[in-house]
Amino acid sequence: MSGRTQARACPERTCVGCRERAAKTELLRIVAVEGECAPDPRGTLPGRGAYVHPALVCLDQAVRRRAFTRALRAPGALDTKALRRYVERTTVAEQATR
After folding, report:
1. In this model, does residue 2 exceed pLDDT 70?
2. Kind of pairing, strands 12-14 and 28-33?
3. Of the candidates 52, 21, 45, 17, which has an alpha carbon nearest to the alpha carbon of residue 31?
4. Coil, strand, or helix at residue 28?
5. pLDDT, tens digit, for every residue of 34-47?
6. Lowest-pLDDT range, 17-21, 34-38, 92-96?
7. Where are the beta strands (DSSP E) in the chain?
């Protein structure tokens, strides 16, 4: 026996808002599409990605610190309105199911 276990390691990513590490499945992937931050919940959009907790607190921290521009290596400021709407909708939907 080699001593290896059958449990697979879960990949971790760092939230650009609160800078805490979490499982990749708990975070929302963000990509830059035509000058704006686009949510990528399935993780299939092409390009460089940044990860953030799907919570308004982390989103606000990331916007305040200009973390998306740095993490996505964008040449200028990115619009986050669509991302904010997406996070608001998902948090409301999660609260409704509880």
Report:
1. no
2. unpaired
3. 45
4. strand
5. 999 999 999 999 99
6. 92-96
7. 12-14, 21-23, 28-33, 36-40, 49-52
